[in-house]
Amino acid sequence: MREPWPTAARTAPHLFPSPLLKEQVVLGFDYGTRRVGVAVGNGVTRQARPLAVIADEGDVRWRRIGELIASWQPAQLVVGIARHPDGTPHELTARCERFARQLEGRYRLPVARVDERYSSAVTAGGADDEAAAVILQQWLDEIGSPSPLPPLPHGERGNLRSTSPNDVEEK
User: Fold this and answer.
1) Sign of CA dihedral 95, 81, 10, 76
2) pLDDT in tens, 101-131
3) Contact criterion met (CB below 8 Å) for 111 and 78
4) 23: Cβ–Cβ under 8 A, 6 or more apart, which residues?
5) What is the pTM of this model?
6) What is the DSSP string of 87-118?
7) Which residue has the higher pLDDT, 147 or 118?
């Protein structure tokens, strides 16, 4: 019997999130040169909420991030990547990417990148932890969206007729 999903799962793995993530914690980050907003969410509720604003720099910033990671023990991290409204790189794009790579290297956790073009504009007053929650919520919504069914191979048709007990022939 042929399985319907393997080709789609191999060619579009982002459409099939890890089943292990369902019950695990995720931390989201809104990187800034002066402050880093942090949000927390999980795969059960698929809801993100503001957690903290880290206004420290250098080693103190990394220590605070490490404390949050140790406390919450996330399975996944999410970082917003700054871009201009037309999608072109922003002056912070490279710094956001570097921050994401540093998180991966320091904490050995997977780090997803999310387009954060409008996260600060969506939040009233542009609070960094609220922007992080918008970024994380966007990611949770994306991984929670139903995946489109892959097309049937050429020439095959799906059986859309329901079967009732009267339709079954006795042998």
Assistant:
1) positive
2) 999 999 999 999 999 876 656 666 668 999 9
3) yes
4) 42, 43, 44
5) 0.71
6) SPBPTTHHHHHHHHHHHHHHH---EEEEE-TT
7) 118
